[in-house]
Write a structure and sequence with these properties.
The chain has one domain. It has 18 helices and no strands. The protein starts with 8 loop residues before the first helix and ends in a 15-residue tail after the last helix.
């Protein structure tokens, strides 16, 4: 790691593992589906609201909703055909309306999942303050090449501590995600190859990655390209070279995500991790989040 990002990779990854469930509740909670339905989005599946919630910051500075091409670029691993089915969406809601509903959804979800006592506790307020310090470090450290982090960092901060915590978690996870895409590009892995290679090292079963919308033919073609590079074998499992490449991608992702934690400092980061224990357990124990996911949390 460079001096700027001289933070233990394990700590950087731990912070992601702790924050990701707190961010991801938005995509699965019934309260969030209620808010999406009120805007006119379908809720028979999670994708209409997922794309709405996550892409809204990209169009927050104007009335126009973001295009499918822009979302495909920023989200990377989703099939362009899948994105086109859900973006710009089935309602006329402007980005500002979606963002307001997003915060209402988080407010309701956190009160239901974490509980009113936790939401109002001094410990959560302390965690929110530390989260905001780390997230605010993203901007002066630079958001070039990080469109989702930059878009979320540009939003005004809410007042309630639990909403501050969620917004900071979102900025930090998108900052990490943007860096991950840079690591994938540097490794020469296109969007579908990124998923095939991740499945090949056991991050999740291939069926889990079907949620990203690639066809069987596209998946097979990507596997063939990886096999030609010696990264997977005839069964689709990663070779030693394939495992090495994916390990390098994950390490580079940690390095690129380390700067906010370096800015927060080791003592404050350790305290923040301690404070997140209770909310993390509540999020995991809610039963709302899938046991297996395309991020490889718990597997990498």
């Amino acid at each position: 790691m460079t001096r700027e990002t001289a933070v233990e990779a394990g700590r950087v990854r731990q912070m992601w593992h702790l924050l990701e469930p707190l961010h991801a509740l938005l995509y699965y909670a019934p309260e969030a589906f209620d808010e999406a339905a009120a805007l006119g989005y379908g809720t028979a599946e999670r994708w209409p609201s997922y794309f709405a919630w996550r892409s809204a910051p990209l169009g927050a500075t104007g009335p126009a909703r973001v295009s499918a091409a822009r979302v495909t670029s920023a989200f990377y691993s989703f099939s362009p055909a899948m994105v086109a089915r859900y973006v710009p969406g089935e309602t006329s809601a402007a980005p500002a309306e979606v963002l307001a509903a997003r915060l209402r959804a988080v407010d309701r979800t956190y009160r239901a999942v974490l509980g009113e006592d936790t939401v109002k506790s001094p410990e959560l307020a302390e965690a929110a303050a530390l989260a905001r310090r780390a997230a605010e470090a993203v901007v002066p450290l630079g958001t070039a090449g990080r469109p989702l982090a930059a878009a979320n960092a540009e939003l005004p901060w809410p007042e309630a501590p639990h909403l501050v915590l969620w917004q900071a978690a979102t900025i930090l996870r998108e900052h990490r995600g943007d860096g991950h895409l840079a690591a994938l590009l540097a490794a020469g892995l296109d969007p579908v190859e990124a998923l095939v290679s991740f499945a090949a090292v056991g991050a999740a079963p291939e069926a889990v990655f079907e949620s990203r919308g690639w066809s069987a033919a596209e998946w097979s073609a990507a596997r063939a390209r990886l096999a030609a590079r010696g990264l997977v074998d005839g069964t689709g499992a990663a070779t030693d070279a394939g495992r090495t490449l994916r390990a390098e991608v994950e390490l580079r992702t940690d390095e690129l995500a380390a700067a906010p934690w370096a800015a927060l400092g080791p003592e404050a980061t350790s305290r923040f991790a301690e404070l997140l224990g209770g909310p993390w357990l509540a999020a995991i124990g809610s039963g709302l989040l899938p046991a297996e996911n395309t991020l490889g949390i718990g597997k990498i």
